[in-house]
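ok, trying the design again with the full structure, not the truncated one.
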């Protein structure tokens, strides 16, 4: 059976501040610019969740994308949507919420929750022009 990758797109809106407390205020401003604004700013995030595997001979599917949606909504989207990523999200506690750090933290939540389906890639869009990808390595 060939391996096929299927992807579900989900959306959430959240606030954050990109900030490294180990650096001075001036260093944070120089490094992060307006993303370091102390009173937060928001993004309309898009998360793409990909699962890879063989096609089930009975269903013709790799995975039920409705189940993927339900699991990701429950485990991740409900935790981050309309929240402050610096303050409100247990799986991001202590993290500097760059897209890179967010996507790795989300992997740690989603991969076990959708098993035995195999999570193969997360793509997180912070803006229409910028996305990060993670494949678990
Ligand atoms: Ni930002």
């Amino acid at each position: 059976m060939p391996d096929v990758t299927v992807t579900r797109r989900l959306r959430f809106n959240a606030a954050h501040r990109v900030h490294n407390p180990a650096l001075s205020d001036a260093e944070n401003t120089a490094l992060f610019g307006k993303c370091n604004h102390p009173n937060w700013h928001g993004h309309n995030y898009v998360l793409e969740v990909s699962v890879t595997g063989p096609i089930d001979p009975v269903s013709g599917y790799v995975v039920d994308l409705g189940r993927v949606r339900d699991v990701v909504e429950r485990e991740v989207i409900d935790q981050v949507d309309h929240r402050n990523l610096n303050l409100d999200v247990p799986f991001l506690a202590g993290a500097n919420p760059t897209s890179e750090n967010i996507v790795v933290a989300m992997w740690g939540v989603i991969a076990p929750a959708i098993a035995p389906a195999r999570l193969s890639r997360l793509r997180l869009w912070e803006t229409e022009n910028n996305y990060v990808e993670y494949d678990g390595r």
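Keeping the full-length input from now on. The two ends are 25 Å apart (CA to CA).
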